[in-house]
Amino acid sequence: MSLFPSLWPRLRPLAWLAGLFLGISTATRFALLLAAGDGVAPGLGNWGRVFGLGLVYDLATFVYFAWPLLLLLWLLPRRWYNARGGRWLLGGLCFLLVLLLVFVAGAEWTFWDEFQTRFNFIAVDYLVYTNEVLGNIRESYPIGPILAGVLLLSGLLFLSGRRWRRGSDETSTFAGRSAFAALWLAASVLVSFGLRSDDKERGANEYVNQLAGNGIYEFFAAFRASELSYARFYRSLPEAQAFAELRQLLQTPDAQFVSADPADITRDIHADKPEQHLNVVLISVESLSAAFSGAYGANPSLTPELDRLSGESLQFTRLFASGTRTVRGLEALALSVPPTPGESIVKRPRNENLFSLATVFNAKGYESLFLYGGYGAFDNMNHFFGSNGYQVRDRAAIAPEKIHQANIWGVADEDLYTLALAEFDRAHAAGKPFFAHVMTTSNHRPYTFPEGRIDAPQGKRESAVRYSDWALGNLLRRARDKPWFDDTIFVITADHCASSGGIASLPVFRYHIPLWIYSPRHVAPGRFERLLSQIDIAPTVLGLLGMNYRSRFYGADMFRLEPGRERVFIGNYQRLGYLRDDQLVELSPGRRLASVRPDYEYNRPQPPLAADPRLSTEAMAYYQTASWLFSRGLLAAALAAPAPVAAR
Which UniProt keywords are listed (predicted)? Predict the structure, then answer.
């Protein structure tokens, strides 16, 4: 300010806004630090990064945030600035900026409570799907008191700064104001090119990395990075080497490549048992962490129905989800591909006619269904499944009088299952085997469900888990009376875990989800103890059915994959993880590659390891080729039927 003494009276509101912005940002950061609890150990190192680096991001964000006020201070003529109308205009803009700051601070607290991170891709998605998001907020929080509190606090902060904003401008010139605006523009350009969101992500504690950021900055950084080119941002192999490596990784005892083209991953899969056209019901339960279930060690257990089912099912004990959002789970279950960077394929353009699980079942004469308890326009689900071999039924297919309870995300699970049973009855009556992917919604905030089902309060995650478990038990009890039950396989898993954040960048324990395969007539009970990736579920189920088919899946039938070759893919939009041999290779933008020791059970730091060149090469080969093939339309469903086994 001293460089422009004649401008000081005019720029006093800008100085006031800067102080308020930094104060609210610091207070927000401190509140989130308290919310992180023992995730951030006290100490000069952690606190220095959180608040020192955080100040850098706050100042950078303020350069952008202050532009509306700066434009007004620059362009408003002196006589207008000094007039009552100018003061009202200035005051109105300042109040709106204060209101925005307070609102964002509250939103950040809510977002951190749900996801243990600053704003990211999820926040960007929520801006797109305002109906569901605003409805969820209305149903989850006391909106009236919250808005009243935001307005009250904003008003108090605004009034407390009125002395700073006052003043007459008798000395500024348009040339002087323009020079200052030019300097501010130069600072904006410098920040744009000199600072990136991931510059703060160099520490081992992901909570610290996130707390050092600024929510507003992170939101727009996530918006810009919704599409990430693997070739541009990630460490890569020469293309020929990547595909040569991939062909070795995809070669399994049950597979034979159909082409010598190194970029063609099409394989004929040959089963080792007679083919059975059994019905398949794949249920992906919203946010069902393995840690909720007594069958996976929870004490007390929130899933008594599934615990009882475990003794009658084939239970997989070491399954890990591909991502932290529903669309990542749907992508893994339907397409059997690793989680490529940026948005899920479910939401990307040009995602039609891909090779999917429905592709295989439809070729075998099945009717393939996607059944969802909410409105499938959310997250582009209806378009994706409808364009990839599935018939889609969502909440719109359920008559209002048949809905026991609903919230903004969807109907109660029991009502979705009633729709599913009716669809199964219809397909069976038509003489067709059916494959159905059923996606539930009850275990989602605001955690509401029909009264009288369980003895638990509304609005609690633990209650919603218990209700989801009850609804599954109720579904199976109703299904046992159906004529198609004996010839049906139920595959019960989760789309992702209930929580996603942790001390580590990719906290492995957060990705652990359950899997039961239940069919009393056809699947022997037992426990599968080997490591399993979510993308392996589809080929494993097809293997249990003894199906021969032509495949473009990246996943493997875990009963045919040789021991020692197990691997898992996990990701969080930007960071891609490859887990094998008790090492986690992490690929991230900036062509960075690191290796850490995974923690499968607790929220603890994952210590760095010397990168294993073999595992690093495998990780790059998988992720690089998956991105390359999708971007070029080479994961398409148009495949010729496999040649008969006897002809080979």
Answer: Cell membrane, Membrane, Transmembrane, Transmembrane helix
